[in-house]
Amino acid sequence: MNVLLVDDEQHVREAIKLLVDWDSLGVERIIEAENGSLAIELAKQYRPAIIVTDMMMPVVGGVDLMAWIHEHLPSTRTIAISGHDDFDLVRGTMKYGGLDYILKPIDPEVLGEALKKAKLSWEQEESARLYQNLQKIEMNQLKPVYWDKLFSNLISDVNYYYSVKDVLHNEFQLSREQMPQCQIIIIGLEFVERKITEKFNNHRDLLFFALTNICNELLRSRHAGYACRYWNSESEIVIFYWDRFDELNDLLAEINSCFYRSLRARFDFGAGLAHPFPEGLKNSYDEAKSALKQRNMLQNINWLHVYEASGMRTDANAGKLHLSDYEEPFRMALLSSSEAEIAVAVNDWLEDVKLLPAISFEQVELWRHEFTVMRSQWAKLLSSDAGSGSAAELPSLALPIPLDDQGRLSLSLWQTELSDVLMKYSDVLTSSRQKDRSPINDIVKYIEQNYNQGITLQDIASRFHLSREYISRRFKQETGGNMSDFLEKTRIDKAKMLLQNPHLKIIQIAEMVGYPDEKYFSKVFKKSTGCSPGQYRKSVQ
């Protein structure tokens, strides 16, 4: 906080500086001016929270200075100091928001109280102003989310429109008669070129934000529509288009050109037919979705896919091929843990894929679903084979769908990436088998079941007929920590659960988790969590 002292007499300014405990007020800098003109220049530069000014000064007097402050720095608090008990000076002080009028010679207590009052007033207004600014920032951040949610709801619930029609038409300056029909266009982002995701560091929210901004700059400048992220899908931008339908193709081409200039990539658009608004939004959305699903992913000749009312296109649907028909060779390759066998299984599959005249997005979705089902079956079978009886440790790997730099499905990249995925799966399986054969797994389970007993490394060595050195070394290799730390963590985790029960005393909990000494338990708990057991109990309650 800065304070500006204004007086044409230097000894008065020096006296004021000596009379006040500025540190206790939180004052960081005291600036001095010998007249009102210089004070104005310094106030522009430092924007002080408080100005203490004399009223009778050359060049620019106190009243004129306070009038300038009132107009240009309304948040600054002013205190007048004068050797004249003049009604006009007092009235000028009050008129321009002065908090106090102090007569010379200055009483230190009076000046100190006036400064405290000025500081409190300034802080209260500053806090209110900061709160208002934060509210404005939050509203600006939430506004796009609000419109995304509103438009998304219009598709799924036609009656929702009647509860928001006023705010909708006011925002977009429309009347009910101006929007008799609306057409839905979907921009599909299920599969995005690798270079695009890398540009956004795989942050899809930023990608959606960039694309919808580009769309809305063009749509709202024409008062023709709005683009939003569709809340019922993780990979769709939906354009609501309600005017100048004869210009739609040109507008979408311009949007895609802007995408290319900004991101060096073009995207596929699926367009439904125009339907009555709002009743027909769901029909238009379904049509746009259908058109997008039927696009041929081996080509990028057409980027705009318009729904054809006469029926589905046959080229992208020709020759259905099921990935599930190749489940056995994939499974046998995984069991072999052989990179060469996995490559052969993938190659056999892709050789048949190459015979297809076209590959639609719908076909790819089917393959992804089939791969998920196969992966689940493998997890159960292979985990059982490994002896764990659980699929929990096997990864949930998805079927990769690689695109080339032109945005087409790349079969050559698919060969490499699918082989890599299956090899990773096989590696985890092999590691799981080795872990299941390790005695450390049994030791971990024993500790988890007997943490409340007085377990020592020697006890474990005797029970499992192993040396203490071997257990210590292998335990750290396989778990990343030593056995005593694992035991302590297990006990503290159990204690946290028990502390949520207000009817259990802390000494009871200490004994239940293996600490017969309550003080020692409290010491270990605080070291682990940063707070005492009692403090932790209060925080969770």
Could you walk me through the main structural features you see in this protein, from its secondary elements to its overall organization?
The chain folds into 4 domains: 2-128, Rossmann fold; 157-306, 2-Layer Sandwich (Alpha-Beta Plaits); 323-436, no CATH class; 439-540, Orthogonal Bundle (Arc Repressor Mutant, subunit A), CATH 1.10.10.60. The chain starts with a strand and ends with a helix. It has 22 helices and 11 strands. Helix 3 (36-46) runs parallel beside helix 4 (62-72). Strand 7 (225-229) and strand 8 (236-241) form a beta hairpin. It is flat. It has 541 residues and is α/β, with parallel strands linked by helices. The strands form 2 sheets. Strands 6, 7, 8, 9, 10 and 11 form a 6-stranded mixed beta sheet that branches. The protein has a 5-stranded parallel beta sheet with strand order 2-1-3-4-5, with helices on both faces. The model is unreliable at 312-318 and 386-392 (pLDDT under 50). The longest helix has 49 residues, at 108-156. It has helices at 10-19, 22-25, 36-46, 62-72, 87-95, 108-156, 161-171, 194-199, 204-221, 248-263, 281-293, 327-336, 339-353, 361-386, 411-437, 439-449, 457-464, 468-479, 483-499, 506-512, 518-529, 533-540, and strands spanning 2-6, 29-33, 50-54, 77-82, 98-103, 181-188, 225-229, 236-241, 269-271, 275-276, 304-306.
